[in-house]
Amino acid sequence: MEDVPTASSTATSGRLLSLLSLLQVRRDWPGALLAGRLGVSERTVRRDVDRLRELGYPVQAVKGPDGGYRLEAGRQMPPLLFDEEQAVALAVALRIAVGTGAGIEEAAARALATVRQVMPSRLRQRVDQLEITADRRSTQVGTDVLLALSSAIRATEEVRFDYGDPPRRRQVQPHHLVVRNGRWYLVGWDAGREDWRTYRADRMALRVPNGPRFTPREVPGGDVGTFLAARFKGSATADAWPCRGEVALDLPLAAVAPFAGDGVAEEVAPGKTRLRTGSWSWAALAASLARFDADLEVVGPPELRTAFADLAARAARAAR
To answer: Is 123 inside any structural domain?
Structure first.
């Protein structure tokens, strides 16, 4: 009696949408569990699965003690179903994609327009209230380059490319493709130099075919984000400046804090601020502290005092 078709077509459509939503959030669903979630019999679930297949959704039967169903990848893109939070997250991701420099700006804009058009008005308002400005300084990289590098990383195949000006041939074991400050970087192990190296993807001219396969290894520290940040600071290991010093500036804290960067500034007396910061070299650290245009006292270390003395001598020669 439960399966007598007394429900309206509207109720059936709503149940199909609920079934599709469940299949999208979990790989395997036992038939009995689906029936319980939908409040129908397993026979009704089987009929609904057949309807989804007719609409182009590749729902496969799963063998086993419980039986069940799985939504597989198909030959073509069927209509997708998103809940409200997923739809908003997708719209936000598409807006951000415009500024990634991955060469997909036009496609992302068209996809965003498609998603926004079918959104309920309350969701459109949430998305439209979100202001995201793309960084126009982002360096553009061909999508084919990014896909080729990603494929080589997954296949653990060395990549061969020309790099630099003048171009020089390189062969590297690729491990990570990372976005930082609007630029795409390849982090890889250079077996010839026996060291980790970082390359800008927009400066790479890939050669085919790829090189031999390799055994993946772990970046120093185990985290590629920390490793890349350390390399940009001139450090070979930890995400910390190799040269760190401390000074007392004859300036109030309010005048120092906005320009302290990743340093630590604290008030030690009215009109006097202690600043602990770092840089990639002692000369660079001394120069960056001199930009405050105020008298200062070097608290330490001695290398920073020496760097100030060298900087003063060079400045005197330049003044002459």
So the answer is: yes
Nearest to 55 by CA among 36, 81, 32: 81
Buried b vs exposed e over 2-27: b needs ≥16 C-beta within 10 Å? eeeeeeeeeeeeebbebbbebbeeee
Mean pLDDT of 277-282: 87
Q: Is 257:249 a contact under the CB 8 Å cutoff?
A: no
101's torsion region: left (phi>0), alpha (psi -120 to 50) or beta? left
Number of CB atoms found within 10 A of residue 136's CB: 7
CB atoms closer than 10 angstroms to residue 38: 16
Which CATH number does the domain housing residue 183 bear?
A: 2.30.30
State residue 7's pLDDT score.
43
Instruction: Please compute the mean of the pLDDT values over residues 54-80 and round it to a whole number.
Output: 74
Report the domain count for the chain: 4
- Based on the fold, state whether residues 88 and 113 are members of the same structural domain: yes
Question: Would you say residue 254 has pLDDT above 90?
Answer: no
Among residues 156, 148, 142, the alpha carbon closest in space to that of 208 is found at 148
Q: Are residues 221 and 249 in the same domain?
A: no
Range of the domain at 180: 143-232
Whether pLDDT at 3 is above 60: no
**pLDDT surpasses 90 at 242:** no
Radius of gyration of the chain (CA): 29
